[in-house]
Design goal:
Elements: H1 10-15, E1 26-31, E2 34-39, H2 44-55, H3 59-62, H4 69-81, H5 86-112, H6 121-144
Antiparallel strand pairs: 1-2
Helix pairs in contact: 2-5, 2-6, 4-5, 5-6
Length: 160
């Protein structure tokens, strides 16, 4: 049973579970086992741009021999608009962190292929699935105005 949307408490705003955005722009939605923070004031153009920020990460799947296209594209898009709003900055930083993590996982698995007699190659399939599902879910959340956190992501770039 979903409860009505709530405004984040002062403690939650101070802790920063939803980086970016002013507290007046955010609300919390509880449903099921998770809580999502939504930026109701994010205009449609910010939501669309953040949607593409996440989807451009899929370029890494198209450039598999050297999977850096998604990272480079996401990094360029984020740096262009990171000052425009906290919403775009948060989505861009999260997408770049995810792309760096996916690249790192791919490099480690490639190095491990020979010592594991090829078993690490199955890990590449898991990384591809993680990238595909993560980018699509991130794009969907961005389009709804929600803040999104990728699973299995090392937060190399931290917010303010």
């Amino acid at each position: 049973m979903a409860s009505a949307p709530e405004t984040p408490s002062a403690a939650e705003r101070d802790r920063g579970p939803a980086p970016g955005g002013s507290p007046a722009r955010m609300r919390r939605e509880s449903g099921g086992w998770h809580t999502r923070f939504v930026d109701e004031a994010a205009p449609g153009e910010e939501r669309t741009y953040s949607l593409y920020l996440h989807l451009v990460g899929l370029l890494s799947l198209a450039s598999l021999p050297v999977p850096v296209a998604g990272l480079v594209g996401t990094l360029i898009m984020w740096r262009i608009k990171h000052d425009a709003s906290p919403y775009l900055d948060d989505h861009g930083r999260e997408a770049v962190n995810f792309q760096i993590s996916v690249l790192l996982y791919g490099v480690v698995l490639t190095v491990l292929i020979i010592p594991t007699l090829g078993l690490a190659a199955f890990g590449h399939l898991a990384v591809v699935v993680l990238s595909l599902v993560g980018c699509i879910r991130g794009a969907m959340a961005a389009n709804r105005g929600e803040f999104y956190r990728y699973p299995m992501t090392v937060r190399f770039l931290k917010g303010e």
